[in-house]
């Protein structure tokens, strides 16, 4: 659906050489999927997103949306193409002097929709985002979440095939974030809309992205299925991001009192954690003690991680670890770290 | 006191002459200054009609007029006024130079109030595929409206001051009256009356402008 090939974006700086915002990025977003791009601020993710509707014109590269090469279009054709690429922003960017109705109607007017049709369409859109009762209020009278709903309605006005979200939930509190994400997910399902989300919150990716990419210094350092990324991150930066959602901090006092081997067990997908562990404990002469554990649901698929302390004769412990290796997704033997 | 009653009819005429001069100049400022200000804004770097040439030419032209002190501009424009109206005397003639001064004055105010608009709002409009004209008409003008009205108030008050200068070279109006009676005839009563009249006029304009600006502000 969206195809970026060798995208580079340079920003001219007042002195010396230009700054590279995006460095030779190629990326494909499939039709109907929710794709997340994660990175710290300054990683170039926002610039990359803005290249997808040419709000930022890439220095080199090809941008294709729905098969159309956006960089080859005249400015009038580009305006038409943009009507099928919705975009929402961190700061909502609503017109303060216009009512909710007028804000949404503007997008329709821009596309040349007839006046009679505008009213029904706006009502329809506000129904979708759940704000029909606010139709004649001004943005200043709305909460952050409501403003974002209006901007989603505006973005959806001309039945776009793509929705670009630039840190759309970063200015919202956690529960509002959840509700906006749920709305995006619903829109994705109901209308088959392709959604690209830029965020620095791994929670957002975990909740709704089918696939994701991690960006650093203008480059994509890792990309793949969200589940695979979460269960088996390879890049250190990705690990750091995953840690924000799936981190295990064991109290140092606890670490000092454990005597056996510390294991981290991963359960990917539908493996019943307790079953395997209790079988292991019955068939081996070891004592196990679960110190920490968590099951996260990523795209509704469970990802379980448990940390356990295994005590017993070394031979038995090693056999128990082998036994586990054959049955669980991943076993890591953690070092006893000196508490600092 | 008797002198005051004596000049009351003249004061009345002068008052309306001032209103006429300022009114015409304000109208011209809106008709020409507003578009120039918008052009200055939208052709600026990073905006959707970025154009260094147009921005440069319009900018220089505006600075040119603005750098001439009004009293000099008045004299300088006399041949032009004569060409336009066939006379250089009277409030209509004075409104020519007032208008010429008002255009760049208001254009700069329009430009700076447009700059106050959140760039993101304009970006969002570009992202939905709106044309430059639609963005100007439906985003920039409504969003800048409180600033545009406040700017018009400032322009009007400046013009009232300028109109007094225009009065000295035969433009008429309150300023002319003050000079003729107050300065040439040492008639302090008329002088004070005109000053009070000007104060009241300026206060009224300011109050009305503030009220209007506030009522269109939806922030």
From TrEMBL, chain A:
Swiss-Prot/TrEMBL keywords: Amino-acid transport, ATP-binding, Cell membrane, Membrane, Nucleotide-binding, Translocase, Transport
Organism of origin: Aquibacillus albus
Classification lineage: Bacteria, Bacillati, Bacillota, Bacilli, Bacillales
Family matches, as CDD domains: ABC_MetN_methionine_transporter
InterPro entries in UniProt: AAA+_ATPase (IPR003593), ABC_transporter-like_ATP-bd (IPR003439), ABC_transporter-like_CS (IPR017871), ACT-like_dom_sf (IPR045865), MetN_ABC (IPR041701), MetN_ABC_transporter-like (IPR050086), NIL_domain (IPR018449), P-loop_NTPase (IPR027417)
Domain named ABC transporter: residues: 2-242
Pfam families: ABC_tran (PF00005), NIL (PF09383)
One MF annotation (Gene Ontology) recorded for this entry: ATP binding
Full protein name: D-methionine transport system ATP-binding protein
TrEMBL record, chain B:
Topology class, membrane: Multi-pass membrane protein
Principal place of residence: membrane
Natural source organism: Aquibacillus albus
Family: Belongs to the binding-protein-dependent transport system permease family.
Residues spanning the membrane: 20-42, 54-77, 83-109, 121-141, 147-169, 190-209
Gene3D superfamilies per record: MetI-like
Residues of the ABC transmembrane type-1 domain: 15-209
Domain of life of the source: Bacteria
Record keywords, A-Z: Cell membrane, Membrane, Transmembrane, Transmembrane helix, Transport
Subcellular location: Cell membrane
Leader peptide range in chain numbering: none
PROSITE patterns: ABC_TM1
Protein name: D-methionine transport system permease protein
SUPFAM superfamilies the UniProt entry points to: MetI-like
């Amino acid at each position: 659906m969206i195809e970026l090939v060798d995208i580079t974006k340079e920003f001219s700086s007042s002195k010396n050489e230009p700054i590279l915002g995006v460095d030779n990025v190629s990326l494909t977003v499939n039709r109907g999927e929710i794709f997340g791009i994660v990175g710290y601020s300054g990683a170039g993710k926002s610039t990359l997103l803005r290249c997808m509707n040419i709000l930022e014109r890439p220095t080199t590269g090809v941008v294709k949306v729905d098969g159309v090469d956006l960089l080859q279009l005249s400015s009038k054709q580009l305006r038409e193409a943009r009507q099928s690429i919705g975009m929402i922003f961190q700061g909502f960017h609503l017109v303060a002097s216009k009512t909710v109705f007028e804000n949404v109607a503007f997008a329709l007017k821009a596309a040349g929709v007839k006046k009679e049709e505008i009213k029904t369409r706006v009502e329809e859109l506000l129904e979708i985002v759940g704000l029909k009762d606010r139709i004649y209020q001004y943005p200043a009278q709305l909460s952050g979440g409501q403003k974002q709903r209006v901007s989603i309605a505006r973005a959806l006005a001309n039945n776009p095939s793509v929705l670009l979200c630039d840190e759309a939930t970063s200015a919202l509190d956690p529960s509002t974030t959840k509700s906006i994400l749920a709305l995006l997910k619903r829109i994705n399902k109901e209308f088959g809309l392709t959604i690209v989300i830029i965020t620095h919150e791994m929670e957002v990716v975990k909740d709704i992205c089918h696939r994701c990419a991690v960006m650093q210094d203008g480059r994509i350092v890792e990309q793949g299925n969200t589940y695979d990324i979460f269960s088996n991150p390879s890049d250190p930066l990705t690990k750091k991001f995953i840690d924000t959602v799936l981190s295990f901090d064991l109290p140092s006092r606890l670490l000092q009192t454990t005597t056996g081997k510390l294991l981290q067990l991963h359960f990917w997908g539908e493996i019943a954690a307790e079953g395997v562990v209790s079988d292991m404990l019955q068939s081996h002469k070891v004592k196990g003690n679960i110190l920490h554990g968590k099951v996260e649901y990523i795209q509704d698929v469970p990802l379980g991680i448990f940390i356990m302390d295994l005590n017993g004769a070394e031979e038995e412990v090693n056999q128990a670890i082998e036994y586990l290796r054959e049955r669980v997704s991943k076993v890591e033997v953690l070092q006893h770290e000196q508490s600092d | 006191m008797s002198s005051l009653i004596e000049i009351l009819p003249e004061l009345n005429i002068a008052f309306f002459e001032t209103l006429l001069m300022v009114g015409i100049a304000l109208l011209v400022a809106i008709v020409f200054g507003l578009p120039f200000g918008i052009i200055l804004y939208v052709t600026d770097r990073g905006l959707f009609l970025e154009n260094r040439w147009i921005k440069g030419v319009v900018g220089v032209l505006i600075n040119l007029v603005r750098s001439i002190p009004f009293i000099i501009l008045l004299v300088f424009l006399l041949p032009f006024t004569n060409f336009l109206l066939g006379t250089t005397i009277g409030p209509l003639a004075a409104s020519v130079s007032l208008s010429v001064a008002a255009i760049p004055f208001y254009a700069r105010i329009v430009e700076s109030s447009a700059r106050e608009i959140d760039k993101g709002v304009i970006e969002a409009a570009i992202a939905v595929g709106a044309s430059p004209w639609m963005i100007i008409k439906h985003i920039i003008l409504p969003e800048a409206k409180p600033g545009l009205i406040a700017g018009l108030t400032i322009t009007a008050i400046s013009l009232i001051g300028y109109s007094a200068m225009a009065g000295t070279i035969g433009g008429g109006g309150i300023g002319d009256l003050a000079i003729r009676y107050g300065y040439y005839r040492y008639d302090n009563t008329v002088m004070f009356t005109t000053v009070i009249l000007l104060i009241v006029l300026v206060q009224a304009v300011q109050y009305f402008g503030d009220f209007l600006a506030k009522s269109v502000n939806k922030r």
